[in-house]
Structures are given as C-alpha cells and as structure tokens.
C-alpha cells in the first residue's frame, strides 16, 4: 500500500471535487506553492493513485437516467460459464459496471437505461438469453442522496 500524507489527501479530495481547476487554484486550496503542488500531483499520477480524469455526465439528460442494480446468480460456476457471462455483460452498453460479489449470488450489475420499458428489454433480451442465469433480483434506484460520481 502506498503511503500518502495529509497534503496528498487534500489534493486528492480537491481533484475529486473539481479536476478541472488550475494548478494555481489547487495549490492555493491545499496551501502549497504551485511548483510543489504540481510535483505532488505528477507523483500521484506516476504512482497510479490518480488513474485519470473524467467528465461527470448527467445521464438523465441523455435518456439513460433510470438506474437499476441487478443481482445475478448463476447455476454453473465453471471457468467457462463465468467467462461467457462476463463477456456478454461487458458487451452490453446498458451495463456501466459490474462486480463479482460474495454471498448467495455471483454478480452485481449497475444498469443505466432510459426507463422501465428499456430495462424490461435488457432484462429479457440480455439477461434472459444467457445460459446458466438462475436468478435475477432488480433494485431500482429511487434517489441518490450521495454519490462520488458527481
């Protein structure tokens, strides 16, 4: 594990809130000179702590604001069946992330679509066609009081 100090944590918090701020503004906010701040940011990038910078997109404005978390269980746990499931899910544009999880089920998917009708289509045409899917539990997001996504 990489050791970072209080100043690095402040830099990371500031960049998480606004990665587009200038180095001068960032330096002022964390109490460093611009050159020292830039060196620290570059070191955080070089070490892999900062993996990249992204735009936070309002998916609702683009017609994909209906978010569903989907817990999926499989009837087969062979390397081949898990790999086939993961390839199929990774290829779906509606799935923005998915995770293997511990517990009674194998996967947790985050699906972003336009509405319930679009989710039903995903449920039937994607999940419903995959072999070895034994259970599907859908959790529709009603509100997001806190999100690190922006």
TrEMBL record:
One of its GO terms (molecular function) is sequence-specific DNA binding. Residues 4-65 form the HTH asnC-type domain. One of its GO terms (cellular component) is cytosol. Transmembrane segments: none annotated. The keyword Cell division does not apply. GO terms for biological process: alanine catabolic process; regulation of DNA-templated transcription; response to L-leucine. The keyword Isomerase does not apply. It holds the Pfam family HTH_24. InterPro entries: ArsR-like_HTH (IPR011991), AsnC-type_HTH_dom (IPR000485), Dimeric_a/b-barrel (IPR011008), Tscrpt_reg_AsnC-like (IPR019888), Tscrpt_reg_AsnC/Lrp_C (IPR019887), WH-like_DNA-bd_sf (IPR036388), WH_DNA-bd_sf (IPR036390). Keywords: Activator, DNA-binding, Transcription, Transcription regulation. This is Leucine-responsive regulatory protein. The lineage of its organism: Bacteria, Pseudomonadati, Pseudomonadota, Gammaproteobacteria, Pseudomonadales.
């Amino acid at each position: 594990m990489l050791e970072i100090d209080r100043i690095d944590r402040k830099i990371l918090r500031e960049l998480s809130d606004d990665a587009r701020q200038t180095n001068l503004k960032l330096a002022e906010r964390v109490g460093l000179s611009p050159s020292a701040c830039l060196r620290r940011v570059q070191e955080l990038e070089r070490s892999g702590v900062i993996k990249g910078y992204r735009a936070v997109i309002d998916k609702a404005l683009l017609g994909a604001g209906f978010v569903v978390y989907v817990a999926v269980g499989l009837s087969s746990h062979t390397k081949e069946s898990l790999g086939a499931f993961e390839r199929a899910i990774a290829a779906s544009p509606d799935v923005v992330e998915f995770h293997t999880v511990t517990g009674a089920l194998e996967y947790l998917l985050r699906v972003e679509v336009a509405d319930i009708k679009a989710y039903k289509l995903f449920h039937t045409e994607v999940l419903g066609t995959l072999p070895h899917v034994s259970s599907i539990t859908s959790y529709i997001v009603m509100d997001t009081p806190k999100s690190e996504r922006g």
